[in-house]
TrEMBL record:
Annotated CENP-V/GFA domain residues: 1-135
Name the record gives this protein: Mss4-like protein
UniProt KW keywords: Lyase, Metal-binding, Zinc
Pfam families associated with the record: GFA
SUPFAM superfamilies: Mss4-like
Family assignment from sequence similarity: Belongs to the Gfa family.
Gene Ontology MF terms in the entry: carbon-sulfur lyase activity; metal ion binding
PROSITE patterns in UniProt: CENP_V_GFA
Presence of the UniProt keyword Nucleotide-binding in the record: no
InterPro entries documented for this protein: CENP-V/GFA, Mss4-like_sf
Hydrolase is among the record's keywords: no
Transmembrane segments: none
Length: 145
């Protein structure tokens, strides 16, 4: 699957033809980041993307923000058009996770079928009946709601 930003300067292939998981995230951070009611997050393995190639790294800006439990989140943007491309969580020890999130809007041909809804406790739009949903993170400790 091809990733292309709005100005088309950032372009690369995902490591697999489809994401491992797909979520519509209703957290307040995704609302701010997307300027909308939620953000679409496609989960991919980092293999084949990280470490970033010199070319891709030169095209991206990084904003790092605090995350839960001492973690941080590296958010990658196109230096030219400012579109958020992806983010990757780093654990408290600084180690990057082996998965990353690529924003749905930059993925060419992404199917939204089967997307789960996360952080629904912050939702500002109605969540459709019958979809997979979590009040917080889809991690096992948060519990499915």
């Amino acid at each position: 699957m091809e990733v292309i930003c709005q100005c088309e300067l950032v372009s690369f292939q995902t490591p697999t033809p489809a994401p491992l998981r797909l979520y519509h995230c209703h957290c307040t951070e995704c609302q701010k980041q997307s300027g909308s009611a939620y953000g679409t997050s496609a989960v991919f393995a980092t293999e084949g993307i990280f470490p970033l190639s010199d070319n891709l790294e030169a095209q991206l800006s990084v904003f790092t923000r605090p995350a839960k439990q001492g973690r941080t989140m590296d958010c990658y943007f196109c230096k030219t058009c400012g579109v958020r491309i992806m983010h990757r969580v780093r654990e408290a020890d600084g180690q990057g996770r082996n998965t990353l999130i690529i924003k749905g809007g930059v993925l060419q041909g992404l199917s939204y079928k089967g997307a789960g809804h996360i952080y629904t406790r912050s939702a500002v739009v109605e969540i459709p009946a019958g979809v997979e949903r979590w009040e917080a993170s889809p991690e096992p400790e948060s519990g499915r709601k």
